[in-house]
Design goal:
The complex is a heterodimer of chains A (about 110) and B (about 110).
Chain A lengths: L3 E4 L2 E4 L5 E7 L5 E8 L3 E10 L2 E4 L6 E3 L9 E3 L8 E8 L8 E2 L3 E5 L1
Parallel strand pairs in A: 2-11
Antiparallel strand pairs in A: 1-3, 3-8, 4-5, 4-9, 5-6, 7-8, 9-10, 9-11
Chain B lengths: L9 E5 L4 E6 L5 E9 L6 E7 L4 E3 L3 E6 L4 E6 L8 E9 L6 E2 L3 E6 L1
Parallel strand pairs in B: 1-10
Antiparallel strand pairs in B: 2-7, 3-4, 3-8, 5-6, 6-7, 8-9, 8-10
The chains are: A mainly beta (about 110), B mainly beta (about 110).
Chain lengths: ~110, ~110
Amino acid sequence: DAEITQSPRHKITETGRQVTLACHQTWNHNNMFWYRQDLGHGLRLIHYSYGVQDTNKGEVSDGYSVSRSNTEDLPLTLESAASSQTSVYFCASSESSHKETQYFGPGTRLLVL
Amino acid sequence: GESVGLHLPTLSVQEGDNSIINCAYSNSASDYFIWYKQESGKGPQFIIDIRSNMDKRQGQRVTVLLNKTVKHLSLQIAATQPGDSAVYFCAENTGTASKLTFGTGTRLQVTL
């Protein structure tokens, strides 16, 4: 069955370290998204991509970067982790057309000490 | 499991009763809406969607109602079961891009 996976599921890191969170989908979806979820804020968009070599900033993109070298993967990198980036991170994907459901991965819980 | 919102509005219903979860949206240009369910420690799961050319859509045990006049969306769950206990989010799509804007969610607690 097609699916979307994230790894690691849990990560503890130290302030200043670079961290990369993986997202892999097997639906062949063109659109992929990264969100963070925090108490009182719901889901906030970090970065998104509409296809290979395409990346765009979301509402909370500072301190994060993404790259899209193939259809299946959109890794999220924290260049220099900060305590404010402690959160739960969700990856999602959707088909090419504009008004389509996004399907979510299981999430990565990140703790920055 | 994770806590997605300690201060979320909470709806408590008895098993077997019907549940109604409400969502207000602010952008009158929004034309596509989705309801998601999120259980503790899991990612949001698609429940049902509706486009703005409709005012009602039914799924299995769920119905979504859209009132564009007052910018209000509701999710009705029939014969609520313990497995329905979760946080429910509405999401809206505005414009031509594929991005969604999410509400903060409502926690549904099903009592036996």
